[in-house]
Amino acid sequence: MVIEIDGNVHADIDVSINDKEREDAIKSLGISILRFTNEQVTGNLENVIAQIENYIKINKPL
User: How many whole angstroms separate alpha carbon 33 and alpha carbon 30?
Assistant: First the structure.
């Protein structure tokens, strides 16, 4: 699992294209990506942590 935290620069079209290419490469390896904004992390960290914990519980390896 990869966790990405994106700032406002990721709204830029060139950065967005690069993000998509990197995301496709990561996913092609069978790795999932959780993406959060800076605002989510700084403004509601508890929710971000809960989402990560929930993802881990649901996707826990056997």
Answer: 10
